[in-house]
Design goal:
Oligomer: single chain
Radius of gyration: 24 Å
Number of helices: 15
Distance between the termini: 33 Å
Helix content: 10-25%
Number of strands: 20
Bound molecules: CU-O-CU linkage
């Protein structure tokens, strides 16, 4: 396979320059940080070699003509116009793996936030990631609420040392926190797409990006206390015993403390994994635990039986839209962010907004548990619970400083196996695994409830063709099923998916709406009812002013529980919980996918 290398480019990304030509990069511009850094923004030297196009199992990639023996479009662009010579690139025709290159101004900060520089300190040398040697002991990430005094002391010490470093040190807490801002507030450009800024949320990049982020964070903490076995504790919010903010984070004298948190959500209060902000959480403890367990069951077991449902939708270089979150990113990852952040801050800082979330030490333990869910998900039964094999996913790349202050380029393909990366999680009980919800209503006579019974409900049931509609109250839609009465084998091969598309809202808004199927009194329903198919929620961010995204929910198991396997259609109810009237729903459909 032929390959060619481009001359390396040291680029200085100006705050104000429109990234329209190679010339834009010829003169360095000083970018002054008002928060963390006071230096030129990143000068990332990239050495690019042509990537031989690989076959992709994915249809979209196939349509990009990246068959064997050809270079993909990105590489052709590099050859013709140089890395930054081409701007008129857009759409799926140019799809390629997301690969970050230069870092510049964070362009999608909330309106009231002073401009901040989230880029890492400049460094001309980038190396490719190599796996740690196998002779090193595995790092075991423990549950944060179960740590002994010795471990707590070690964690505190590492955090204190990290906080004490000068702000321009890549190992400092300020720099570690800024990484999240850089990758979430459009600081980075994609290789080959100078006008496209990336965001690592709302797509299949969510899990791998955060895994890599924590990987280096943990190694740096270990290095600071000279303990290569240090494992980053996880906030075990999926278990009743671990659901409150772990005590180690709530001590104001500890470096693990952050004062920008919700004062009403302090321990021993347990987090509500289905938190809707505007709707009060269950006050009865048993009810809350039941709700949490069934939410976890729904997100991990019943609604996410395929890779796309769990990890999120594809995001390729050149894409404008962030197409959709996976189940855990959506819920409860979002809920923990919003529930923890201080509602009296303009943007729910720190945890309630992406640019500031990394400033709270609890963020990393929250994501340690999110990351743990990836490992657990792969062990649950079902033939479609496998890692994504699309090469645009596997070849997506990010940059991080490692524990030796070396800038490293990492690829998604190297983070699929945490053992190979040198860490595992403490084994703790999974109380949600047996929390399959039950239906509220009695099993109906032959034929299932379907639309006939539900039609008696007071909210009018619209035809699916009546959409798009603003969600300014309960929206009920009759959704036809293209296939019914499938065999067990067909169901195992292909998941029946409820696809809610064209979800549009202002990126600054927090939106939460629940989705119920064949339910008659959905206002009072919740995750403890089998009728609950899932929900949509978001940590506010505005990759574009108007976010346009989708929600996919696996419903094969749910339809069995409702006795609706043989129904011609479903009545789908969308119930706004927060952000009523502020979100538009484009369409509701059923599709099938493995
Ligand atoms: Cu990058 Cu929990 O978010």
């Amino acid at each position: 396979m032929a390959s060619f290398a481009l001359p390396t480019t040291v680029a200085h990304l100006s705050k104000t320059t429109q990234l329209s030509s190679a010339a834009s990069f010829s003169s360095p511009t000083t970018t002054t940080s008002q928060l963390f850094l006071n230096q030129k923004c990143n000068h990332l030297k990239k050495s690019l070699s042509c990537r031989a196009a690989k076959d992709s199992s994915d249809q979209e990639a196939a349509s990009n003509n990246t068959g064997d023996g050809k270079f993909d479009r990105r590489d052709i662009l590099l050859g013709l116009g140089g890395l930054y010579g081409t701007t008129a690139v857009s759409g799926a025709a140019f799809a390629a793996p997301v690969d970050v290159t230069k870092c510049g101004e964070a362009t999608t900060l909330p309106g009231n936030v002073t401009k901040i520089d989230c880029c890492p300190p400049p460094n001309p040398n980038i190396i490719d990631f190599a796996f740690p040697s196998r002779s090193q002991p595995l790092r075991i990430r423990p549950a944060a609420h179960m740590l002994d005094a010795k471990y707590i002391a070690k964690f505190n010490k590492a955090m204190q040392l990290m906080r004490d470093l000068p702000k321009d040190d890549p190992h400092s807490f300020a720099q570690q926190a800024a990484i999240h801002c850089a990758y979430c507030d459009s600081s980075y450009q994609m290789v080959g797409f100078p006008n496209k800024k990336i965001d690592v949320h709302f797509s299949w990049l969510f899990f791998p990006f955060h895994r890599w982020y924590l990987y280096f964070y943990e190694k740096i903490l270990g290095k600071l206390i000279d303990d290569p076995t240090f494992g980053l504790p996880f906030w075990n919010w999926d278990s009743p015993d671990g659901a409150a903010i772990p005590a180690i984070f709530a001590d104001p004298k500890s470096p693990l403390y952050d004062n920008l948190r919700d004062a009403l959500h302090q321990p021993p209060l347990k987090a509500d994994l289905n938190y809707s902000k505007k709707v009060p959480s269950p006050t009865d403890l048993n009810e809350l635990i039941k709700s949490n367990n069934t939410v976890m069951y729904n997100q991990m077991v019943s609604s996410s039986k395929t890779a796309e449902l769990f990890f999120g939708k594809p995001y390729r270089a050149g894409d404008d839209q962030i197409k959709g979150q996976g189940s855990i990113e959506n819920i409860p990852h979002t809920q923990i962010h919003i529930w923890t952040g201080d509602p009296n801050q303009p943007n729910g800082e720190d945890m309630g907004r992406f640019y500031s979330a990394g400033r709270d030490p609890i963020f990393y333990s929250h994501h340690s548990n999110v990351d743990r869910m990836w490992n657990i998900w792969k062990t649950l039964p079902g033939k479609n619970r496998k890692d994504i094999t699309d090469t645009d996913y596997l070849d997506s790349a990010f940059l991080f400083y490692d524990e030796n202050k070396q800038l490293v380029r990492v690829k998604v393909r190297d983070c699929l196996d945490t053992k190979k990366m040198g860490y595992i999680y403490q084994d703790v009980p999974l109380p949600w695994l047996r929390s399959r919800p039950v239906r509220k209503t009695k099993k109906p006579k032959k034929g299932g409830r379907g639309s006939a019974n539900a039609a008696e409900a007071p909210t009018p049931i619209l035809d699916a063709s009546a959409l798009p509609k603003v969600l300014d109250g309960i929206l009920k839609v009759n959704v036809p099923r293209p296939k019914k009465s499938r065999t067990q084998e067909e169901k195992e091969d292909e998941e029946e998916i409820l696809e809610i598309d064209g979800i549009e809202y202002d990126g600054d808004e927090y939106i939460k709406f629940d989705v119920y199927i064949n339910d008659e009194d959905e206002v009072d329903s919740g995750p403890q009812n089998a009728e609950f198919a899932g929900a949509f929620s978001n940590v506010p961010f505005k990759v574009s002013k108007k976010v346009k995204t989708s929600l996919s929910l696996g419903i094969t198991e749910l339809l069995e529980d409702l006795g609706a396997d043989d129904d011609e259609g479903l009545v789908v109810a969308l119930v706004p919980r927060t952000g009523k009237g502020k979100v538009t729903i484009g369409s509701v459909k059923i599709r099938f996918s493995s």
